[in-house]
Amino acid sequence: MLSFLTDYTLQNVMIGAALIGIISGVLGCFAVLRRQSLLGDTLSHAALPGVCLGFLWAGSRSMESLMAGALLSGAVATVMMLTLTRRTRLKMDAALAVTLSLGFALGVVLLTFIQNRGGAAQAGLDSFLFGQAAATVRGDLYPMAVIVLIGLSLVVVFWKPLKLMTFDPEFAAVSGLPVRLLELFLTGMIALAVVVGLQMVGVILMTAMVIAPGAAARQWSGSLLGMLLLAAFFGATAGITGGVISALAPGLSTGPVIVLVASAIALLSLLFAPQRGLIPSRWRRRHKRSHTSSDRILLTVYELAREHGDWSYRVEQGAVDAYYGMVTEPLLQALAQRDLLKAADHMPDEGPHWQLTETGCEYAAARSRDQSRARRLRQVGRPA
Amino acid sequence: MSHSPSDPDVHHDPSIALHLEDLTVSYGERPALWDIDLDVPAGVMAGIIGPNGAGKSTLIKATLGLVPVSAGHIRLFGEPYGQQRRRVGYVPQRSSVDWEFPTTAVDVVTMGLYGQLSWWRWPGRGERDQALRALEQVGMEALADRQISELSGGQQQRVFIARALVQTPDILLLDEPMAGVDATTERQIIDLLRRLRDEGRTVIVVHHDLQTVQRYFDWLVFLNVRIIAAGALETVYTANNLRRAYGGQVALLDEAQNRPNAPSDA
To answer: What is the dihedral of CA A159, A161, A167, A170, to 10 degrees?
Structure first.
C-alpha cells in the first residue's frame, strides 16, 4: 500500500488530478450558480482545435504549447459566445451550443489531418479526447500548478465582485462594478480550469469536472464560501480516485473514470444531503405526520364539509396533503379505523376521497365548539 | 432653475432629486421612452404609474445606468449617477435574482455595502452589524441568518429593501416592490417608505395598482412612453390624466374612478 503511494507515476497522477479537481470545482461553482453549466462543455470542446494547432506549431507534444493553443482557442470561443448573446437575438444556450459544435468539429478535422500526416509523435494526441492520466510526467505538473495558484488567488482577490455579480448582476452594475469585464474575466478563468484538465480528463468529459463538484457542494452548504471549499474537496477526491483507478488498469481512459466518481458524489449529495437532499426532505415530510394530530385533519374535513353545506361532502386526499404539506394517508386511515371517516369514490380521474361518518361529524362538531370557546376565552382574557 | 441643452456645466440644481432632460431610450425599433423631461423634487414620495410597456422600469434602469441612453441626460441631486452612486438605493424586482443562491438574509444585505468597501477588504463584524440594523428597520432581524430560499416572497422583498437601506441612501428607487406580497407586508413596506420620506429622503416607486395610488403617494408621474403628467398628487391625479396614460384600458379606469374621492374632470 505504501509502495503504491510512493510510485512515481501514481504520485504524478494523484497530484495532477487533485489540482484539476480543485480548480475546476472552485470555478465550476460560479458556472453552476450562474446557470451556465454548459459553459465548461463549450470551452473544453472549443479547446481541441487549439490543442491541435499548438501541436502543429511546436511539432511535438509539449505541455506548454498545447496549453497555450488551448487557451487561445478558448479565448476565441469566449469572445464568440459573448458576442453572439449580446449582438444577436440568440440566447445563451443557443450561443453555447453553436460555439461548442463549431469548436469540436474544427478540432476533429485538425486531429484527423495530424494523424494522416503520419509520424510517431502525434500518437498521443487523441488521448485528449478522453484523457490519459498515466501519460502525466512531473514536468507537466508545474504549468498546471502555476495556473491553479493564479486561478485561486484571483478568486480570493476578486471575491466580493465575483459574489455580487453571481448573485445579482444588475445590482453589481449599480454598485459600480464593470459587470461585462468581470463576466469575461470569469469565463476566462473557467477556460483556464478547463485547459488544466484537458490532458487528464479529455475534452469530451471535462464539463463534468466543472459541474459535478459544484452541484454536489451546493447540496451541503448554505454559503458561497462553504460551497467553494467543498467543491474543491469533492473535485480533488474525484480526481485522485479516478486517476489512480485508471492508472492501475492498463488502457482505461482516465476521463470517464474520474467523471464516474464525480457523478457518484453528486448523485449521493442530491439524494442524501441533510437539508436539500431528496431522501431527508421526503423523510421530514413523513415525520411531520407524527406532530400533526389526526383530530386536526378531521376538523379540516369537517370545515370543508360545512363550507360546502353537505355533511357527506367528499374531500380528495390530495387536497388534504396539499393543505398540510405532507402525506396524510396514514392519519386518514387511522381516522377511518376510529370510524370517524370513510373512504369514498368520486370522479374516476381523481384520487381517493374521504367523507365524514355520522359519528365523525358529531365528534368534529364537538371539537370545533371546544376550539371556538377556547378562542373566545383567550380574546376576552386579553387586556384591552 | 432651468438649463438649456447648451449649458456647458454638467451640474444642475441640487435640490432636484431626479432630473431627466430630453431622455430617449430605445431597445430596438421603437423607443421605450421618448423625449422625457422630468423633475422630481427632493423629499417626496413619488409613484410612477402607467400601463404595461409604458417604460416605468426602463425609466428607473436608465437613471441607474443599467440601460444605454439614446439621447438626453440624467442628474441626481444635480450630478450624474456615477458621482452619486452612494446616495442612491435601488430595489430591483424580486424576480430578477435566483433565490436558490446559497446565502442568508443578512449576507444579502451586507452585499449592499460591498460598493463602499475597498476592494481587498472582506466584510467583517462592523458590516454585519450595519446589515442587522437595516434588517431591523424592515422588521426582519429575527430571520437574519435564515437561508434566502426559505423566505416568503414578502420577506425576500424586505431583504432587498434592507440591502438598499444599508447604504443610507438619500434617494430610493423601487421597481414594483408590492408585486406578489401579501396585504400585511404591503402595509409594512408603505409605512417604512413613508418613514423614510419623513426623514427627508426621496422615494420613487414604480407602482402597478391604481387603487392605492392616492393613499400611497404625494407626488405622481403618469408615464406612457412619454410623460403624460407629473406633479403633486392633488394637481395631476385627474380622470383626464388617467385616461391619457391608460388609453383604452377602460376597466382599470372605472375601477379607479368608482372609489370614493375619485378624481373628477373638474
So the answer is: 180
